[in-house]
Amino acid sequence: MRLGISRVVLAVCALCLSQLVRADEILVAVAANFTDASRELAALFTDTTGHRARLSYGSTGKLYAQIEHGAPFDVFLAADRQRPALAEQNGLAVTGSRFTYARGKLVLWSPHPDAFEDGEIYLNQAPTTPLAIANPRTAPYGLAARQTLESLTLWTTWQPRLVRGDSIAQAFQFVATGNAGAGFVALSQVSAWPDPVGSMWPVPETLYQPIEQQAVLLTRAQHNPVARAWLQFLRSEPAQAVIRRYGYATDSPNDADG
Amino acid sequence: MSPRLQAQLHHQRPDFTLEVDLDLPGQGVTVLFGPSGCGKTTLLRCLAGLESARGHITVAGETWLDDRVQRPVHQRPLAYVFQEASLFPHLSVTGNLHYGYRRTPRRLRQIHPPQVEAWLGLETLRERFPHQLSGGQRQRVAIARALLTSPQLLLMDEPLSALDQASKQDILPYLERLHRELAIPVLYVTHSPEEMARLADHLVVMADGRVRAQGSLTELLPRLDLPVTSAQEVGVVIDATLAAEDADWHLSRADFNGGALWLPTPTRPLGSPLRLRVLARDVSLARQPHHDQSIQNLLPATVVSVDSDHHPAMALVRLALADTPLLARLTRRAADQLNLTPGQQLWAQVKSVAIVD
Amino acid sequence: MSAEWQAIWLTLKLATVTTAILLIVATPLAWWLARSRHWLCQPLAAVVAMPLVLPPTVLGFYLLILMAPSGPVGQLTQSLGLGTLPFTFEGLVVASVIYSLPFAVQPLQAAFSGLSERMLEAASTLRASPLDRFFSVVLPLARPGLLTATVLTFAHTIGEFGVVLMIGGNIPGETKVLSVAIYDHVETLEYARAHWLAGGMVAFAFLVLLSLYLINGRLGGHGLKP
Predict the structure, then answer these.
(1) Where are the domains of chain B?
(2) Record's CDD domains (chain C) (predicted)?
């Protein structure tokens, strides 16, 4: 009986392991704001190469902490450049594999069409409703939002009315549910929002430092051809076209950063 | 004369109907008697308002229930003593005693803690908690607690049945004392012939949710058509007065309406009331007064009827000593030899008398 | 006041207010659930228990929608002149009350169910009105359950994270409670400060639960039996 159970356990473990180590499959850690785009990219990847990329979403900070503690990711698609750089420094990622796969665009957004026409005018009015941003300390879009308000010298004005989402996804949620009057969110999120009516103000890129979303090959996959193929694929024109369609800017292909 | 307790009650459960019409004196102990499941407890609960019933209840001239009035339990000035003491475990004896007392309006308080503590012997128990008391002590506290609401009606539902014999003997004298001190009606449910004999003034005999008979104990006890007691215990209760004492022989004479009985001198003063119990099996009959025998109590009696007993060999003879009934249990052969007929005069020889109160 | 102490103070305030409200709300609810045979009892008990099984995010998500300016609760609070609840301390209190409801109701319900009917009958024959009976008999006898409910509600509110994160908006001094502060520290890799707070919470939880078991053990052995 004992033997029987241990056999079953063994069989289950073997099955799990085989799931994990399928030769043509990789596991990609994806920053939450890139969720929708990465899904389409993964499908395209399978169509063109026959390989599979499984995706795991989370905030950049959380994903980094997981990688640091041995999570079995092969590639890290972050929402900033700090975390991939840190991974490289700490030997968690393969040096030289880091590049910018997308540039985030910050917008001021509200689902209500009559919320504002010009975001700058809206921001210069006395605050009446909460303004949602991602937590500047943990989320790159939150940092960009803070930089924007500081550039406009409105940070202290708005600070009492700021509500901080744990991630840019949560900041978006605060606005989408109407709990915040408006919020700084990613253009990619607004593009994916099913209801096209609303007020949107693309924040001039002079007001914040570029949100460079970088990808990096993680050390455990340094000899994994599928992982390298995935990174190569991300830089290809068809992939970059998808990324642009989701509301990101892209550098010209093969223009690696850093 | 205090107003009578009157109650007509109808209570319906899927498997049981209670339909009673009670008319009881405004004072004294009425024992509710009947087999298990006959509705005694339900009747008590309906009177208290713990079960809902239709009908009407009048106690001490106040209406508790009729077509328009339905007083909730806490507004009926009654006291209820349950089979288990049901003391509040989080309160000391004093806390329990004061629970109802504090909730009784000051002007209605007629019974006060020192008095009740003395009646029920609780003076040394005040600081204790229920789990530190014996079963008998707990029930005494429960009775005291109930009395301290200065009730107009005391309902007692087999208050001694959960106690062992020693605790019962411990508590019965207290109950008898209450019986003498209280001027309110007490309804007392019991299965015990002893409790009934010692405490009852009146009897309500119940069966199947109905009242089969109600009346005074002395009147009802000899009635043989009622399942009042088992045949072994058939007997009568006689209320008498301690009238004389023969100091040489340590014997005393108890007089009652219809005769007198000699018994060992009890420890109570001349003139005090006595309740005597005479079992049918302790009474024999003779046509002539025989003095050449050991039985000292010899009373002239009149035969009222001769009835059959549950045993085919035995007969029960109902006798009258003036107004006081008496029962004798004889073999049928003896009855036949005496040629007993109603109205016949003869002598009753009483072998044993018990003082029950 | 440092950010840490602010978070600790805010958390204690939230737990205290939530516990106080829940004891007032949960007591009659638990009483009804324990004593009534109404057909609604079972469905209501299930609703009360739902926060036990639902992920906090589900609760947070619906609260966010309901309490939004256009949501039914938001409309109500606005028409009452209370403004909207998300991102406010009051909003956290409402969420915590819902989230911790089973921790208050269930111990009380168990305590009330175990109460002997006879005690209440005895009290009613001693001239105690229903409300009087509740305060003079039911509550004292249900004391262990009441204590458990209080401690669990308090501790559980302190440990709450998901719902707070979703509707709080992480505002220092208003909605940034301990669990969120710890999360922030972990996210920003400030592990030393995270340890300081997280270790404190572990010790706090242990001490609270230990004292609960000790006190209830003592009450249980003290003849609180009918």
Answers:
(1) 5-220, 235-355
(2) TM_PBP2
The DSSP annotation for B235-292 comes to: EEEEEEEEEEEETTTTEEEEEETTEEEEEEPPSS-TT-EEEEEEEGGGEEEESS---S
Residue A257 lies in a domain: no
State the ipTM, two decimals: 0.79
Closest chain C residue to the Cα of B104, Cα to Cα: C127
Q: Which of B48, B129, B131 sits opposite C125 (nearest CB)?
A: B48
Name the A residues in 56-75 with CB < 8 Å from any C CB.
59, 61-62, 65
User: Average pLDDT, stretch C55-79?
Assistant: 88
**Is A34 within a domain?**
yes
pLDDT bin (cut points 50, 70, 90) of residue C56 is confident
CATH class of segment(s) B5-220:
alpha beta
The range of the structural domain enclosing residue A224 comes to: 2-103+211-245
Closest to C186 (Cβ–Cβ): which among A65, A164, A180? A65
C-alpha distances in angstroms, A51 versus A23, A73, A226, C123? 9, 16, 7, 77
Instruction: Give me the residues of B, 32-51, that contact C with CB < 8 A.
Output: 48, 50
Tell me the pLDDT tens digit for each residue of C84-113.
888 889 999 999 999 999 999 999 999 999
- Taking the Cβ of residue A138 and every Cβ of chain C, the question of whether any pair is shorter than 8 Å is answered with yes
A84/C contact by beta carbon, under 8 A: no
Mean pLDDT taken over chain A: 87
- Give the CA dihedral A42, A45, A50, A56, nearest 10 degrees: -30
| A251 inside domain | no
Question: How many domains, chain C?
Answer: 1
User: Does some domain include residue C95?
Assistant: yes
Chain B contact set for C142 (CB, 8 A): none
Answer yes or no: is pLDDT of A257 > 70: no
Report the pLDDT value the prediction gives residue C32, as an integer from 0 to 100. 94
